[in-house]
Amino acid sequence: MVSASPAAVAPSGGRRAGRVAEPFEDVGQQRAVVSLGMWIFLTTETLFFGVLFFAYTIARLQASEAFAEASRHTNLVLGTANTAILLTSSLFMALAVRNAALGTRKRAAAFLLVTAALGLIFTGIKLAEYALDYREQLVPLINFAFDPRYASGALVFFGLYFVTTGLHLVHLGIGIALVVFFAWRVLRSSARNAARSIETTGLYWHFVDIVWIFLYPCLYLVARS
Fold first, then answer.
1. To the nearest 10°, the Cα dihedral for 143, 66, 168, 204?
2. Prior bond to 6 cis, omega within 30?
3. Contact present, 81 and 125 (Cβ < 8 Å)
């Protein structure tokens, strides 16, 4: 007869404390490693986006007038709306983490789904903005026409604009997929069982929002402050 592993049984007498995967000794160690792994991943992502922000800073110092003129052609209304949407999504993500920790399954799933919906709304607005950029001939290498006095600097600005916002959109898409998955998992099992995973996903979601908070003034407010 095979006995239950000590890590799977609570000291109080038989209640499961959580699933422990190899090679972890207990749930606490497993959770600590998962959190550390996410923080390391976010650190590498910060360095990755940091290189892009550094390139933006150097280019802006070299062509400040062209960057200001190019920034005037970004859609401030859509950019501001998306900023508000992402900040609101962070609130709902925090509520989902809180309710998952409390074990309120339906509320946790509902908040996760609202978070994902807001992410999808952001994506739709951003794609619509890309379509407007194309129509206004602001897409480098594909359809670009600008005032010849600022054309070279504007080309760099919009190159960085599409690279940074495109990468942000990819990260957001991954976040949406994770949020929807854990909403499904919560509805099928227990919120408490998924609480730690939801908390880790929340860290990723907030990171994506923070990246946008830095992108917003760099791309939309250069000439509007």
1. 180
2. no
3. yes
Tally Cβ neighbours within 10 Å of residue 190: 13
From first CA to last CA, the distance across the chain in angstroms is 73
| CA 99/CA 81 separation, integer angstroms | 27
Read off the pTM.
0.82
Please give the structure tokens belonging to residue 39: 């923080």
- Report yes or no: 119 and 179 within 8 Å, Cβ to Cβ: yes
pLDDT digits (tens, 9 = 90+) for 162-216: 999 999 999 999 999 999 999 998 888 766 677 888 888 999 999 999 999 999 9
24-220 is classed CATH 1.20.120.80: yes
DSSP E strands, the chain: 138-139, 143-144
Q: In the chain, helix, strand, coil percent, each to 5?
A: 75, 5, 20
| pLDDT for position 4 | 41
17-39 in b/e form (b: 16+ CB < 10 A) is ebebeeebeebeebbeebeeebe
For the stretch 89-104, pLDDT in tens is: 999 999 999 998 888 8
Query: Residues 6 or more apart from 90 whose CB is under 8 A from it?
Result: 205, 206, 209
Say how far apart CA 207 and CA 43 lie, in whole Å: 10
Residue type, position 132, single letter:
L
